[in-house]
Amino acid sequence: MLESLKREVLEANQALPEYNLVTFTWGNASGYDRDSELMVIKPSGVTYGDLTLEDMVVVNGNGDVVEGSLSPSSDTATHLYLYHAFPEISGIVHTHSPWATSWSQSGKDLPALGTTHADYFHGAVPCTREMRKEEVETDYEMETGKVIAETFKTNHLAPAAIPAVLVHGHAPFTWGTSPREALYHAVVLEETAKMAAYTNMIQPSPAEISPHLLDKHFLRKHGSNAYYGQSGKENKV
Amino acid sequence: MLESLKREVLEANQALPEYNLVTFTWGNASGYDRDSELMVIKPSGVTYGDLTLEDMVVVNGNGDVVEGSLSPSSDTATHLYLYHAFPEISGIVHTHSPWATSWSQSGKDLPALGTTHADYFHGAVPCTREMRKEEVETDYEMETGKVIAETFKTNHLAPAAIPAVLVHGHAPFTWGTSPREALYHAVVLEETAKMAAYTNMIQPSPAEISPHLLDKHFLRKHGSNAYYGQSGKENKV
Amino acid sequence: MLESLKREVLEANQALPEYNLVTFTWGNASGYDRDSELMVIKPSGVTYGDLTLEDMVVVNGNGDVVEGSLSPSSDTATHLYLYHAFPEISGIVHTHSPWATSWSQSGKDLPALGTTHADYFHGAVPCTREMRKEEVETDYEMETGKVIAETFKTNHLAPAAIPAVLVHGHAPFTWGTSPREALYHAVVLEETAKMAAYTNMIQPSPAEISPHLLDKHFLRKHGSNAYYGQSGKENKV
Amino acid sequence: MLESLKREVLEANQALPEYNLVTFTWGNASGYDRDSELMVIKPSGVTYGDLTLEDMVVVNGNGDVVEGSLSPSSDTATHLYLYHAFPEISGIVHTHSPWATSWSQSGKDLPALGTTHADYFHGAVPCTREMRKEEVETDYEMETGKVIAETFKTNHLAPAAIPAVLVHGHAPFTWGTSPREALYHAVVLEETAKMAAYTNMIQPSPAEISPHLLDKHFLRKHGSNAYYGQSGKENKV
């Protein structure tokens, strides 16, 4: 069942330590099949080096396991909520990568300080509000997805234009049209989060780049007028 | 004698450079056998790559060598004091890992700024008070253990809930139910110490996470209601 | 055509990830043949590990491809402008290396804080002014080259004495008498940018080194009285 | 001639990139034979990976080459001055390692903020005063040695108790009773310089450790009452 998607999800998970995005088992990747409304996700607490195709867990929209002998990631309900809230995405990556997690811990949005950021994120990457006591104590993982969706709705942000979020006091989630693209965005987010912190070190409260520079860089890589990369190739990632 | 524990202690010591926790010989791991009241510990000043099973030193409760031809770690008396003071632990790791050591040098507790911290430490990791002249000059290593135990007692902290300490002006100690778990906590401590410093860079004096988020993350990994990982497996590490 | 230059350009591009100067495809190296007025440059969006000699793109002074089946780097017009404006250079490297990019994001010149800097840059590495809306929206890449040339002209800087620039809100460009020398300067720039930020951490607003120390170090490596390295060898790089 | 010393000097130079202390050719190690009053030093501008035993340069007290076909390090006169000024040393290492160099650029002494520092340096590692115009312009490298010796004399510091210095606006030199020990101290200096900067990040203007803790740690590793390591072994390094 969903062998091709399972392989993509497996590979995205295996890539997390290669890109230095995770310590121990602190991260997970998933993929979503919109036809069958099934999600493939990493099993909980299993080391990346030990993962096999058979370990991938398939769950339905309620989070019930429909294939696989292991328990799915404890963050399963967050992933599912995001796939339902953001119809344009088919892959999600969650990590505790150090720089993006530190921005999450600071409670601040990650500002667009340069063109590296603008090449992938069409504006600041938002940090959610703090989660309330009742949200944490009841259906915590589902509520995490809900507060992410709320952040995008309240701020009129498009998930395809800003494929990442910082969960307050927790860590980042990134997404894309495939597990591979979500992974790509996780790497970009960590790199831009690092450079934004470095910039803070050099110049406290640095200015965001101009709207025209933000637009220029985002749109030369994305959309119908993109001209970066080789035509006919997947240019964004 | 204690061959299985010796192997665990050897492996925990060998893992210290693999996890980038030590420079040269700046760290040691030990294990404690509560039945025989004997401790296995790294020999002093020996490089990790050169360590063999036979090099492991077995000492009794007074720190006398009962097996092994090498001198035990110069921190032996600290380890022994902690095994006596904290009956729930059977493994200890001491390193001068850069970020945790820098927090020790700052004299500040390591605050719980995010869920990565909360997944393993149920509150701030305390920094001890400065050691007094007479404590340093007489039985220094034993007194180091004593000031750690005092810190936990004075602040009503449970060693199982906060398996780490920062010794003022010195460096961290971590512990667990095995040498392997103590090693795991040493890696976690370094990672959370790093991210707390990064968070400080981004947002001076950042807020600690809420008590409900702290409880949620610690308790979904620990205790009778834990649901992280695969049931029946060792979920915490 | 230009096989030797192509090889040099290929090798400079392949070295970018080895020196940790790039993530994904975030950088490019080029070489210029002043006799034929042709430039060899990396193709756009191709991974360094996949590059072959045949992939190198040859373009003329208008940026038209005269050899090669792939599209040239999206930064082609910037490279060409610089070769025209700075007749003494024959190699250019552009990266988004983290520390130099962070200085670019800060909008500040990189000051000469030590002799490591003075060994290669005879003064501060300038940051350009912000680019104007119309410059960004029309012929952006060419205008990027223009603002770099303007920065050197306005500040009476010699491209051979300061073989690097920080583009405001974007990232660095470095150059030299060959692609290999441009690469060398990209490594040096990243290292000095890192150390300048570290120095800021230790001592806010640190002083620049004295003019005599700046001259001494630059001139013992460059010019007719240089005495660093082995005589008869390429000493600067 | 001096084959054993040459091998030690070769190995210390080769270890510089392994310990991440150098970029390109930015560092050199030397050894001194007090009987013959000859110094063995790295040739100038040669890459560490290319060095052979035959490349080592032997110079006399005037810096004249007495064996070897290559030019000696441009820092030769600094090394020679230090061997003459500090009779207790027989090995010197100079690098531009990032953290120690950043402290040199800050113009500040490296304070003893923890026991890692105290294990090797019996007090702050001093930064020299700025060098004067005439010192820089005439016999610069010799004058560099002179200002180091002046720093130790003026502040009543013992080179054996503090085997390192930060040259203002330049970079560190470390030394020891052998090239290997000088190398060891270069690694320690970089690590303590890093942790002191990290500590500054966490707690601006952190306090130095108490005199009793400084004494305790330095003296448990050095001198007649040392008890760290295995008796009869070289315990300090």
From TrEMBL, chains A, B, C, D:
Function: Involved in the degradation of L-arabinose. Catalyzes the interconversion of L-ribulose 5-phosphate (LRu5P) and D-xylulose 5-phosphate (D-Xu5P) via a retroaldol/aldol mechanism (carbon-carbon bond cleavage analogous to a class II aldolase reaction).
Gene Ontology terms describing biological process: arabinose catabolic process
One Gene Ontology cellular component: cytosol
Protein name (Swiss-Prot/TrEMBL): L-ribulose-5-phosphate 4-epimerase
Location of the Class II aldolase/adducin N-terminal domain: 7-197
Family (UniProt): Belongs to the aldolase class II family. AraD/FucA subfamily.
Catalytic reactions on record: L-ribulose 5-phosphate = D-xylulose 5-phosphate
Gene Ontology molecular function terms on file: aldehyde-lyase activity; L-ribulose-phosphate 4-epimerase activity; metal ion binding
One Pfam family from the record: Aldolase_II
Keyword annotations of the record: Arabinose catabolism, Carbohydrate metabolism, Isomerase, Metal-binding, Zinc
Domain of life of the organism encoding this protein: Bacteria
Keyword Metal-binding assigned: yes
Name of encoding gene: araD
